[in-house]
Specification:
2 copies of one chain form a homodimer. By secondary structure, chain A is an alpha+beta fold. Chain A is built from 19 helices and 11 strands. Chain A has a domain of 127 residues. In chain A, helix 6 runs antiparallel to helix 10. Chains A, B: Belongs to the acyl-CoA dehydrogenase family.
Chain lengths: 603, 603
């Protein structure tokens, strides 16, 4: 069975040493309670919960899956008890507002914990995971009464939430939804329709489930301008706020999926269910994006968690498994063969996982600071800047970390050789679980359009400039630092090229809008690699300072520098291909007619 | 359920128009029967068998898996009947020698058919698939008596074969095997030990199973120089050559795997089983490589088949699924949204699958001609040249087509969005099935070492030169062809760079052997992309000629040119990253100590 330990030392490096979280929390109005000691204690306790409670249920949950019987869904054995422990421990409310029962700690802390949950048991993590987005939508767009009714329950974890968007014929294109909401006498609505792919849509972990549902009013305009958001509880709360009458929403069936078997992915039937409008009529899409952005970063963290889990286990295997001698001569002469970690290509795979997981952690915790500031920053200009950067980085966090998360978990399988394909070892589960992260909450293609089309080009590149300026400043500040030259020089070049590529796509797109879609995924991956290069260069700088100041853990800091070097030499060159493909433009994509694609096999 | 049609038109293009198979067969002594009509009829019939018999069992086989009961393994429902039909139709013996009951057709024809089998049902295809390698080993290294006893049965498909190499503690490093072979009075051996990952090790499709087993003699030298090869039948043949007494070999358990559920992957226990030595004592590794090379190309073909199957189904979905409007304006104004094939990024994914599948087919059929010549070529120099090229291309076919096959099947999932993750659609099965191809018969890392270390550098680059010279000649011959310039110019540059990169690694490797392993996988991928570029450039030339000569199917040939253009503009630039990573050398891989890898999470 795979093992997992929360990467506490690395988190301390990222949070305390590199990104100055103590200073960051000190500047936040809700940061008082987040003293270094408290943060350390929470992270350690969270790591223990992940390892001791969630990890042992990960493989069994995958094997058992969920069971639908008589309309009730049973999560795999142990999931319910673990959830009770989670609620009991106060974990769901950690970073929620005190006025709704939360502990008021910064959101970033919850994000650091989220990585541990995803790493130890992704399928389980998705039961509480969706509640955050639902709570956020209610907090921002719900009426006082709705907040009073649902928010505390969601925050405490007594109830869980869902996002009911997708229908059989539409996922990306929500303007096509058919679910209807008809007003009734009592200022409520009757909701009818079918939603699919509803994660944690029905289960036995919590006493009630709060569905947030997109539907159309009878007089709604066509397309995405005619979508409204409703709250539809599984049990209608009674006068005391407790689960009362059963509502007309039920699970029609469970999907059979490639992975995350332990999570109930439901077809949800709304048969005249009672629902309540959230926010203004026909403005549901905006409300939904409140949930969606939270969820997207959450999915990026899933990618990160799976990278780390896979890395830790392939590392253990590579140290243990004896096979062949090093090409340069035996390294463990007393054993029948050398441990495979001596082989450069095995190291390449391990370092790929390590550089991506540690770099991904920097990206997530960098983004988490932006989330904190957008939520609680006291300076308006700082808040606006954080909003801008968060908008830019959200699709990168989501798509880059899940694309690379899939790659990293596959490297984990590859390190195991044939054993990686065998379920017992658990490495292939990471791959199957990771596969969904490239798809849900908007595929990589959709994230790429959001990044290049909406965020970068619609702002005439201004959004991007906020970030490239920051990188430029860093490069300038370190220009005379001889030891960092190997990082700062290529970073500065890439940073300039990023702007040029953006301009060149922007020019082409003015002639032909399709050029945006033609460049978008390569652009997103390029952006991801440059972003991580910036963070790895900073990490190398932090490590340099620590070593210079005579910090005791010199091996740790040297490993950081080595990993940065690996990233720059053996991963960052991928930008060369992406840059060339972006420059190639879309002509070669658009030439063929839809019919001609199949001429090789269609008779 | 996924559909599949054999790509007969494309095969005709590759075989008849591009690679002059009619001329190739006319030059082969065993090519007389392979007239264009016969070839076309066989391919068509094979495509029908794949589609009508194998395809309907692919998803059900995945769901059911195999069953071990009382030592007997039951393949999924329908597999046995399909195999009987396969034997009845004479398919197993198609390209086997007439003296052993074969039909004597060239091996290349069997390889073209093999793609169809892998595309329609990989798990089923592995029951007969392993027999080829076993037969080849017996043909080349068996005694007359062994050939008489086993070969005809294997060729006819009445019995199937296995390759029993891997043991729990060793796969790549076969020098470590523990299985023992003790001579007995009657010139036989008693085989004892445990083998794992034995594909089709036990099943109910054939009346007997012929295991080819690596084991060590009592006085064997240490390591890989002390390995011998044995034939160990499940039932010992009686005096009439029919299955007689049950031998002491049995299936201990079935592996639970990520994919190819329909194939029985067995732990095989040899408890004093009777075995017979093949070839000289302690020379088993050489005999095994006879099987292995056949099997490696076979696995490359598996990658190809899965690409094609995934491509066909994602194409159908992309034409059918309506979602969003094209950025440049509605393309299907009469429908609620445009089919997703209008979107450039969806086209990028489809064209990636298409360019890799069609390019992969060119590579396989190019390699297949080399196989034909090595087996039956009448000119010694030509045969030697074919041997050399085949040695060079085998690891590329194996590793490049499986790495890219995994990517292509994942693109297929991605085109389906969330539906791609749902088992019912069948797209995720292609991914799970494809995952093993990167691992078995030597991982990608092992293939890469074989290519760069054994094939290229051990020959001082001479092996590579045979191929780059051919590419160079092509480029020179086409130098004045203005229409091909967009392909020939970059190809010529890459071809020269390939030599330079090889030289630079070779120089570094003289200082430090680890540089080979540090560069190997990037080198293999680089080599694969250049090889496919050569073939795509040739294909573009063939299409150009056909269009110039006024061939009627102009849409087909233009689509070929468009796909070539896509390959050069949107896939080939990946070589930029690989070249840079090769040049970066191994220092960044070797710096960290095995202990320091885990400092971020180990306490």
């Amino acid at each position: 069975m795979p093992d997992y330990q929360a990467p506490l030392r690395d988190l301390r490096f990222v949070m305390d040493e590199m990104l100055d979280y103590p200073g960051h929390y000190a500047r936040l109005p809700n940061g008082d309670d987040a003293s270094p000691d408290v943060v350390a204690a929470i992270l350690e306790e969270g790591g223990r919960f992940a390892r001791e409670v969630l990890l042992p249920l990960n493989q069994s949950g995958d094997r058992e899956g969920c069971l639908l019987e008589g309309g009730e869904v049973k999560a795999p054995r142990g999931f319910k008890a673990a959830y009770a422990q989670y609620v009991e421990g106060g974990w769901p409310s950690l970073s929620a507002e005190p006025e709704h029962g939360g502990q008021g700690l910064p959101a970033s802390l919850g994000m650091a914990l989220s990585e541990m949950i995803c790493a130890s048991n992704l399928a389980w993590g998705m039961y509480p995971g969706l509640s955050h987005g639902a709570a956020d939508a209610l907090r921002h767009h719900g009426s006082d009464e709705q907040r009073a009714t649902y928010l505390t329950k969601l925050v405490e974890g007594v109830w869980t939430g869902t996002m009911c968007l997708t229908e059989p014929h539409c996922g990306t294109d929500l303007g096509l939804i058919k679910t209807r909401a008809v007003p009734t006498d009592d200022s409520a609505y009757t909701i009818s329709g079918t939603k699919i792919f509803i994660s944690a849509g029905e289960h036995d972990l919590a006493e009630n489930i709060v569905h947030l549902v997109l539907a159309k009013l009878p007089d709604a305009p066509e397309g995405s301008r005619g979508i409204s958001l409703f709250v539809v509880p599984k049990y209608l709360p009674d006068v005391d706020g407790n689960p009362g009458e059963r509502n007309g929403v039920s699970c029609g069936s469970l999907e059979h999926k490639m992975g995350i078997h332990g999570n109930a992915t439901c077809v949800m039937n709304f048969d005249g269910a009672k629902g309540f409008l959230i926010g203004p009529p026909n403005k549901g899409l905006a409300c939904m994006f409140t949930m969606m952005n939270v969820a997207r970063i959450g999915v990026g963290i899933q990618g990160l968690g799976l990278m780390e889990a896979s890395f830790q286990n392939s590392l253990a295997y590579a140290r243990d498994r004896l096979q062949m001698r090093a090409l340069s001569g035996p390294k463990a002469a007393d054993k029948p063969a050398d441990p495979i970690i001596v082989h450069p290509d095995v190291r390449r795979m391990l370092l790929t996982q390590k550089a991506l997981a540690e770099g991904g952690r920097m990206l997530v915790m960098y983004t988490a600071q932006l989330v904190d500031v957008t939520e609680h920053g006291e300076d308006a200009a700082e808040r606006e800047r954080a909003e801008t950067l968060l908008g830019l980085l959200t699709p990168i966090v989501k798509a880059f970390l899940t694309e690379l998360g899939f790659e990293a978990t596959n490297e984990g399988v590859q390190v195991f050789g044939g054993h990686g394909f065998i379920q017992e070892w658990g490495m292939e589960q990471f791959v199957r679980d990771a596969r969904i992260t490239r798809l849900y909450e908007g595929t990589t293609g959709i994230q790429a359009l959001d990044l290049l089309g909406r965020k970068v080009l619609m702002s005439q590149g201004e959004t991007l400039k906020v970030f490239t300026k920051e990188i430029h400043k860093f490069c300038q500040a370190q220009a005379d630092n001889a030891e960092l030259k190997e990082f700062v020089e290529p970073l500065a070049k890439l940073n300039a090229e990023w702007g040029e590529l953006t301009m060149s796509v922007g020019m082409k797109a003015m002639e032909d809008r399709e050029e945006v879609g033609a460049a978008s995924v390569d652009y997103l991956l390029y952006s991801g690699y440059v972003t991580l290069a910036y963070l790895w260069a900073r990490a190398a700088g932090t490590a340099q300072q620590a070593l210079a100041s005579g910090e005791s853990e010199s091996a740790f800091y040297r490993a950081k520098q080595d990993t940065a070097r690996f990233y720059f030499q053996r991963l960052l060159p991928r930008t060369r291909g992406h840059a060339q493909m972006i420059r190639a433009g879309g002509a070669s994509l658009m030439a063929m007619s839809a019919e001609d694609f199949g001429l090789g096999f269609e008779i």
